[in-house]
Amino acid sequence: MEKLSKIGRYDFLAEPFHCDFSNHLFMGHLGNHMLNAADFHSNERGYGMNYLNEVNRTWVLSRLAIEMVDMPKAYDRFSVETWIDSAMKFFTGRNFKIVGESGHVYGYGKSVWAMIDLNTRQPVDILAVRDGLINEYVETEYTCPIEKSSRVKMSAEADPIRSIDTYYNDVDVNGHINSVKYIEHVLDLWDLAWYKRHTIKRFEIAYVAESHQGDCLHFYREQRDTDIDFNVRIAKSNGGGEEAEVCRCRVLFV
Amino acid sequence: MEKLSKIGRYDFLAEPFHCDFSNHLFMGHLGNHMLNAADFHSNERGYGMNYLNEVNRTWVLSRLAIEMVDMPKAYDRFSVETWIDSAMKFFTGRNFKIVGESGHVYGYGKSVWAMIDLNTRQPVDILAVRDGLINEYVETEYTCPIEKSSRVKMSAEADPIRSIDTYYNDVDVNGHINSVKYIEHVLDLWDLAWYKRHTIKRFEIAYVAESHQGDCLHFYREQRDTDIDFNVRIAKSNGGGEEAEVCRCRVLFV
């Protein structure tokens, strides 16, 4: 395999039907493009899903933070740059930069990934894959000037806002609820009237457990220090059993 | 504007996160690619949304039928070919052909579009736009060997299956529930266990009225002649008022 540059760059179009009422790309679709960029980048460099599935392993997204100056508008062409900025035994850090054609920086992303064994679903040693190949691609100089995700602390008093069922279209090839669907469901907690007055400055999500089609998802929300800054917890239940936490988010608006 | 060929061809990738549990592209995402192809095709030829919005008009999708042999799998590259096969005063017919890299034909689509005035929301004369420019692009020879949509007849006894609320992510730039979201919601009426035994052979949807964020959508389903052939009606209500029909579908499985 030819040695590629550490930073991958992938071009996307803000498709008109992927834009919200204000003609700006939905955050969920941006998240999807970022996951695609991560997938293309790692596959091209030999440590992506295509290879991992042969050795019964897969990447699992653990945390994702996205911080935007503004969002691409319909028909805007933009690139997602992505690179690994740290590789440890059980966690890898991956950064993103979203850049327009003229060089305008729309925003950045930071993510943390684990690797699991497809049978045991337990974490495995990332550096054991292809003799630590990923280490050859760690890029620490290229800047990604946003904060890492920090642990979202929620009190037991967070308000239950909504419960939704999960269906066929929510499920990915692993049989789990698609990572991007959580983003969409969380952002749906605010209505159109809210989005007419606010835009999303920063979105953070930490994935705690997997959920499956048929699970009911429960959304709890609580305000942080200001009235435009929120924590959200998603819990799942199935058939009346106890709730189990699925993910936690922070959503900061401006 | 340079005179382009009558048939447009647009390339897409079956993105991994747009695929279902079986690793095949979701019908909703295919529908989205088809709408993109239609949008690119008409814009490039001077009678697309970009021009229409300047003269206070827009295209409205009235009917869409998709009939598939099989669905692209994750990472498959495919093209959507699209062309106008008839242009009348109030309706235009647009066909689609979904072709793989090696020439494999995945399936076809047929659609009917109207044009409306953005203020009155009333139909306007399509042939009056740019002196009937669209007529120069009508292609009647290229084959699209699937049946047109036919009117879906539903009895008053169709079973109410589900009611769902609509949120921020359902709404497009026109302030309406996105055409593709209806497709997803309809296909969500069957669960994963059903899709493990059946695939979608043909999907038809006729759009009757617009719905908006905050509307509650009610889904009614009834079997046709066989137990793999269904009609679905979507109705909307808002704030406890009477239900009004939004669209009708047919879903045929194999």
From TrEMBL, chains A, B:
<dbReference type="Pfam" id="PF20791">
    <property type="entry name" value="Acyl-ACP_TE_C"/>
</dbReference>
<keyword id="KW-0276">Fatty acid metabolism</keyword>
<dbReference type="GO" id="GO:0016297">
    <property type="term" value="F:fatty acyl-[ACP] hydrolase activity"/>
</dbReference>
<dbReference type="InterPro" id="IPR029069">
    <property type="entry name" value="HotDog_dom_sf"/>
</dbReference>
<keyword id="KW-0443">Lipid metabolism</keyword>
<dbReference type="InterPro" id="IPR045023">
    <property type="entry name" value="FATA/B"/>
</dbReference>
<dbReference type="Pfam" id="PF01643">
    <property type="entry name" value="Acyl-ACP_TE"/>
</dbReference>
<comment type="similarity">
    <text>Belongs to the acyl-ACP thioesterase family.</text>
</comment>
<feature type="domain" description="Acyl-ACP thioesterase N-terminal hotdog">
    <location>
        <begin position="18"/>
        <end position="127"/>
    </location>
</feature>
<protein>
    <submittedName>
        <fullName>Acyl-ACP thioesterase</fullName>
    </submittedName>
</protein>
<dbReference type="InterPro" id="IPR049427">
    <property type="entry name" value="Acyl-ACP_TE_C"/>
</dbReference>
<keyword id="KW-0444">Lipid biosynthesis</keyword>
<dbReference type="InterPro" id="IPR002864">
    <property type="entry name" value="Acyl-ACP_thioesterase_NHD"/>
</dbReference>
<keyword id="KW-0378">Hydrolase</keyword>
<keyword id="KW-0275">Fatty acid biosynthesis</keyword>
<dbReference type="GO" id="GO:0000036">
    <property type="term" value="F:acyl carrier activity"/>
</dbReference>
<keyword id="KW-0809">Transit peptide</keyword>
<feature type="domain" description="Acyl-ACP thioesterase-like C-terminal">
    <location>
        <begin position="161"/>
        <end position="240"/>
    </location>
</feature>
